[in-house]
Amino acid sequence: MILSTPPVSAAEVYNPQQLSHWGLLRQVRREALIDGCIKDVAPPEPETFKKLLEQWCSQLRIDSPEALQRWQQQQGLTPEQWQAFVARRWRWLNWCEAAFASKLNSHYLERKPQLDQVSYSLLRVSDAALANELYLRIKEAEVSFEDVAAEYSEGPEKAQGGRLGPVPLSQPHPMLAKLLQVSSPAQLWPPKQLESWWIVVRLEELHCAELTDELKQRLALELGDLHLEQLLNDPKAAQAVPASPT
User: Fold this and answer.
1) Whole-structure pTM over 0.90, yes or no?
2) Cα separation of 68 and 57, whole Å?
3) The domain that contains 195 carries what CATH number?
C-alpha cells in the first residue's frame, strides 16, 4: 500500500476539537495565557537582545545563517517572527520576576530542602549490638567507614562503601534528613534506630543552595508555572487571561 502525504500549510488554523484530539489543547491554552500576561512587557534592549539571540543559536547548535534559515523555514517563521519567539521567553521571565517578587523568598525557603544537596556515609544493620560495635571501631579509627560499610552494611549503599550523594536533602528519610541538617562535616553519629534498621551516619558535605540571580530566575519561572496551572485548572481561565496573579 502506498500512503499519500497531504500537504502541510503553514497558515492552517486548527480548532479546539483537533487540538484536544492531539493532546495539545492544554499546552495551547497555556501559551495563550502567557501571551496575555506579557502583552505589556517591553522587548529587551538591543544589546541584551543580541546576546539572547546568540545564546539561543548556541543552545541549538545553529552556527551559520543557512542553518538558521532552515530552522526558521521548518518552524514556519519569518526572521521577525523568530526574533519575537526568542524574546518571548525573556519577556515571560521579566513578567514572572515582577509579579512574584514578594513571594520569592518564601518560595525559596519552601523549596530549600529540594535545592540543598547532601553527601553522607551510611551504615545500616539489623542488629543493635553490631551497630554499636561497628560505630566504636569507626570512632576509634580502627577501621575506615568505607571498609565497614562495604563489609557489613545491609542496604544498597554497601556497594559504594556507604557513600551516598550528592542528593537533594529531601531524598533521605525525614529523620535522617533532620540529622544531616544539624550535623557538621565529618561528624559521626552513634547508632540510631530507623524503622527496622540501626544506622550509623557521617555527614560528608552539605551544599546549601544560595539565592543567586540564576536561582531567583529559576524560582520566578516556577512560580509562573504554578500560576498558569492554577489558571488552567480554573474553568473560567479559558475565558479570561488575568495580567497578574491574584
Assistant:
1) no
2) 8
3) 3.10.50.40
Rounded CA separation 96/80 (Å): 24
Q: List pLDDT tens digits, range 113-139.
A: 889 999 999 999 999 999 999 999 999
Predicted pLDDT at 89: 95
CB distance 90 to 139 below 8 Å: no
DSSP bridge partners of 199? 124, 192
34: nearest Cα among 102, 94, 79: 94
In this structure, the answer to whether residues 46 and 88 fall within a common structural domain is: yes
Structural domain range at position 49? 17-107+222-238
Separation between Cα atoms, residue 151 and residue 133, nearest integer Å:
14
pLDDT at 9: 52
Is 112 within the bounds of a domain?
A: no
The reply to whether 32 falls in a domain is yes
3-state secondary structure of 154: coil
Q: Over 70: is that where the pLDDT of 184 sits?
A: yes
> Residue 88: inside a domain, yes or no?
yes
Q: pLDDT averaged over the chain?
A: 91
The Cα 221–Cα 92 span in angstroms is 8
2 within a domain of the structure (yes/no) = no
